[in-house]
């Protein structure tokens, strides 16, 4: 996927909209920050930047769908 920005303001707007902190990612995924660390360590979640941990929103939303499906499969009593 290639991105093209006409100005610095356009780039900054994109970054503010599309990048998430580890805490924001944990909130969206409904997991703890420790679980975020485990997902990264196991290779199931790639940060866009290591320090501080920053994630692309699209990656987090895809992971949320995956986790929801796994919860339905392995935790049917939660429904």
Automatic annotation (TrEMBL):
Keywords: DNA-binding. Residues 19-51 form the Helix-turn-helix domain. GO terms for molecular function: DNA binding. InterPro entries: HTH_17. It comes from the Bacteria. This is DNA-binding protein. It comes from Pontibacillus litoralis JSM 072002.
């Amino acid at each position: 996927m290639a991105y093209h920005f006409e100005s610095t303001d356009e780039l900054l707007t994109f970054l503010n909209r599309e990048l998430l902190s580890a805490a924001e990612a944990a909130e969206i995924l409904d997991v703890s920050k420790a679980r975020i660390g485990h997902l990264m360590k196991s290779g199931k979640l790639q940060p866009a930047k290591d320090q501080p941990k920053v994630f692309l929103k699209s990656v987090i939303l895809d992971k949320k769908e995956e986790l929801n499906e796994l919860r339905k499969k392995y935790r049917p009593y939660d429904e």
